[in-house]
Amino acid sequence: MMTYGQNQYRKTQVATVDRGRLIVLLYEGAISFLTKAKACQTEGDIPTWCSLINRAQDILDELNASLNMENGGDIAINLRRLYMFMGDLLVKAKIKNEPEAVQEVIRMLVSLNEAWREAVAKPEAQEVLARQPQQVAAQLRGSVHI
Fold first, then answer.
1. Domain interval for residue 64
2. What is the value of pTM for the model shown?
3. Which tens digits make up the pLDDT trace of 55-96?
4. Is residue 10 part of a domain?
5. Would residue 3 count as lying in a domain?
């Protein structure tokens, strides 16, 4: 369990981060939950296994809901498909108790996270992210618990 101080630090970090970095943090949160879930499954702690998968699914749902389908073009469409596919894999993992499906989602999230890290590090990306409505970032900050 996180201590009170760690929780407060994490909340402050999420509340003050830019939109691109927030997406990276969400990916990292989902990866962390799924990695812990795999350990719980190995130990036979199925309730915690399911709970941690649910938390990762919540993050995927928020990432999906934050996509700008009007202006996002093919990238938004493909991300939506990928988030839905990952969500389906996680449902399968819970129902059939399949850690391989969780590992596949982790692999995809790590790949996406690396791409986002590279993208948000570029000055052009910072300009685009600065022009995006802050409403989406505020919405994400309030609904996902990392």
1. 17-143
2. 0.75
3. 999 999 999 999 989 988 999 999 999 999 999 999 999 999
4. no
5. no
